[in-house]
Amino acid sequence: MTILVTTVGHAFWFATPENEWKQLFWDYLPRWLLVDDPKALAGYYKGESDLSTLDILSVWVVPTLSWAAFMTVLVLVMLCINVILRKQWVERERLAYPITQIAFHVTHNTKSLFSHRITWLGFGIAASIAILNGFSFLYPTLPTLPIKRIGGWRGFGDLFTEKPWNAIGGISMSYYPFVIGLGLLMPLDLSFSSWFFFIFYKAQLVFTSAAGLSSLPGFPYIDRQCFGAAIGIFISVVVLNLRHFRGVLRIARHHTGEDADEPISYRLALWGIVVGLALLFIFSKRIGMSLWLIPLFFAIYFIIVLVLTRMRAEQGFPVHAMENMPNHHILVDGFGTRILGTNNLVALTLYRWFNRSYTSNPMPHQLEGFKLSERSEIAPRRLFFALLGVSAFAAVMVFGVILYIFYTYGALNMSGGSGWATGFGGRVFNGLQRWIYYPTEPNLYATGGIVFGLLFSTLLMFMRARFFWWPFHPIGFVVSSDWGMRYLWSCMLVSSIIKWAVLKMSGPRASHSSW
C-alpha cells in the first residue's frame, strides 16, 4: 500500500502542458479516490507542513477510508477462500508448508531443535558469514565472502557478447544460507524444478535469438507462458478438489455441523465471498471499469493469488513477486488498448498498486497462519477476525504514517526526489500516457504464449500423475521468469544437490529426520 499512497496525488501534481495529462485522462480520474487540492499537494511534496490541520485532513480522509475499505474487502475475500481450502490443503493433503515448519519448531520444539549439533553448526556458519561481511562493510580492508547478487544486478549476462548468447540477459548468483536452508525443507522435485526451469527460460531466449525470432517484440513471451502455466495449475487444483468443494456446499446448505472446527462456518465463508466480490465489482464500476472487464480482471487476479498460495504451501519459496504476470499487461496483450478504451486503462492504472507485484500478498500468509493455528491448537476463529481487523487498521495506518513523513520532510526530498516516493507514480501514469498515445491491437502471439504455457503445464501434471519418477513440477515453470529466481536459482541448485545426496546415501526416512 506504500505504492498506492505515492500515486494518489501524482497525476495532478506532475501534470504539465508538455505531458498533456490534463487533456488525456484527468476527466476519467475519480476525485473521491485521489487528491487534487494544490495546497494539500504542495505540503505533501515539499514538506515542512502540518498534516493535522483541518484543511489538509479533510482532503485526505475520503481517499484514505475508501482505499482502506477496498483493501479490507479484498482481504476478507481471501480469508473466506482460505477457510474453504483449509481442511483440504492442511489436514487432508497435508502439504509441506516449509516456512511454517521453521516457525513451529522454533516456538514449540525448542529443546529438541537446539539440542542438535547440526542446528548450531548451521547457525554458526550463517552467523559467521553475516558477521564477517558486516565488519567488511564497516572496514573495507577486511575480506568479504560474497553470498548475494554476485555479479551485481545484471549478473554475468554482460560476459556474453556474441549472438545468440547475448540474448541470455541478466543471470546472477547468490548463496543466501536461509534460502538454501528453506530449499532443504522443500520436496526435491520442487527445488530441482525451480532452477531447472530458470535455465530452460534462459535457453528459450538463446534459441529465439539463434532462430532470428527476437525481432518479434516480447517473443517468446515467457511471462505469458508462465501465466498460462498458472491457469493450468489453477484448473488442476479446482478439478482435484471438486469432491471437497461439493462437500463444502453440502455442509453449508444442510448445516451439518461438520465445519465446527473451521475459523468461520462454510455458509458464512461463501456469503463472505459473494458479498465481497459484489462490493469489489461496485467499487470497480464506480472508478470507470466496464462491466464486461470487471469479472475478467478479478478472475485473473484470484487465479494468480490462489496459485501463489498453493505454491507457498508446497514450495515455500521466499520470494514470489510474480511481476511477470500483472493483470494490466495480460489484459492489454489480450485486447489491446484501443478496445479497452481510456476509462478501462485509467481503472487498470489505479489498480496497479495491488497487482503489479505479489511479494506481500496476504493470502499465502493467511493460510500459513491457519496451518500454524492447527498445529499449535490456537482458536482459528479468533485468528480469522484478528487478521481481518489488523488488515483494516493497517490500511489506515499506512496512509497515516506515510503522510506524516511526507508532510514533514517532503516526498520530493525523499531518495533525491526520484526514488519510491515519486517513482512509482511516474511509472504508472507515464505508462497510462503511452497507452493512450500509442493505441495497440490484440497481441495474438502473447495469447499463443498463454495457450502454450497452459498446455505445457498440463503435460507436466499428466506426467507427474502417470510416472512416479517424473522430476519436473509446473510450479517451477510458473516462477521461472520471476525476478527473484534470477538471484536465487543458484541457492535452489545447491539445496537440491545436498538433498539429493542425502537421499541417495541415507534414504528418505533418514533424510526426513535430518531436517
Would you mind describing this structure in some detail?
Keywords: Membrane, Transmembrane, Transmembrane helix. With 515 residues, the protein is an all-alpha fold. It has one domain (2-96, 186-481). The chain is built from 23 helices and no strands. Helix 9 (177-185) packs across helix 22 (483-506) and helix 22 (483-506) packs across helix 23. The chain is globular, with a radius of gyration of 25 Å. The protein starts with a helix and ends with a helix.
Uncertain stretches? none
Task: Kindly provide the radius of gyration, computed on alpha-carbon positions and rounded to a whole number of angstroms.
Answer: 25 Å
Discrete helix count: 23
- The average pLDDT value, as a whole number, equals 90
Helix content: 55-70%
Supply the helix-strand structural class: mainly alpha
Q: What's the quaternary structure here?
A: single chain
Give the CA-CA distance, first to last residue.
36 Å
How would you describe the shape? globular
Q: The biggest beta sheet, please?
A: none
Keywords: Membrane, Transmembrane, Transmembrane helix
